User: Fold this.
Amino acid sequence: QVQLVESGGGLVQAGGSLRLSCAASGRTFSSYGVGWFRQAPGKEREFVASISWSGGNTYYADSVKGRFTISRDNAKNTVYLQMSILKPEDTAVYYCASERSGIYTYWGQGTQVTVSS
Assistant:
């Protein structure tokens, strides 16, 4: 089993940056892919970015491509989401989840990101 805890959310002005962290417990974390998702009020949860277990493959939603960067440090059991040039429409609760065989099984509790205009 993997337990995930997100941190790093907060309030930032448009154009600013934040770095989210997803800290995992469990010795097998390095064998999982990890995805970041977000959910804004009244909207469905949407995919933001993902990274393979080795970090060699990354994927991004079109809406964040070129502004967000996902990375991981398996020695620290942590995955990061560097968010830059933030926009008000990036406001949401951000979740990380572990992935294996295309299925996201374990989820964190989420961290709030609010971007003011």
About this structure: The CA atoms of residues 68 and 83 lie 4 Å apart. The mean pLDDT is 95.
